[in-house]
Design a protein that fits this description.
The chain is mainly alpha-helical. Helices cover 47% and strands 3% of the residues. It is built from three helices and two strands, in the order H-E-E-H-H. A two-stranded antiparallel sheet has the order 1-2. The longest helix has 48 residues.
């Protein structure tokens, strides 16, 4: 998807661009595996000089226009160095307990609902059996 970033012919509504920007800003990451991934996008690879979009810039430098340029320099502290795949995996791992707890609570509520419905159905069948019992006709 990085190859389609900013390309109006392939991303007419700008959805890919907006999505990548949101992911990189929210997860504080750059590229899939790192900033070097932007070398696959022609707009950010100028004869081996790789730049990155502003969404790769750390919050403190996001307002600077040239913060994403020259990422091959080791001392560029203006951009995120972590890839988004790693950042997203860390987010899932760190929040897996909460996801599991929510899923467990939902399962418990569903089981309670099933038990209540089952009890209600049995009660209705018992009431209907007593009302229409063939034994009452013989008495």
């Amino acid at each position: 998807m990085i190859g389609f970033y900013g390309d109006d012919t392939k991303d007419e509504a700008g959805i890919i661009t907006k999505t990548i920007d949101e992911i990189q800003e929210n997860f504080e990451c750059c590229g899939v595996y790192g900033p070097e991934d932007w070398s696959t996008n022609e707009a950010y690879n100028d004869n081996g000089l790789v730049t990155v979009p502003t969404s790769c810039c750390t919050t403190q430098y996001a307002s600077e226009e040239d913060c994403g340029s020259h990422i091959r320099q080791e001392d560029n502290d203006k951009i995120y160095k972590t890839g988004c795949k790693t950042s997203m995996m860390n987010f899932v791992e760190n929040n897996l307990l909460y996801v599991g707890i929510c899923a467990g609570v939902i399962v418990i509520f569903q089981m309670c609902g099933l038990l209540i419905c089952n009890h209600y159905i049995i009660k209705l069948e018992d009431d209907r059996f007593e009302f229409y019992s063939p034994l009452q006709e013989c008495l």
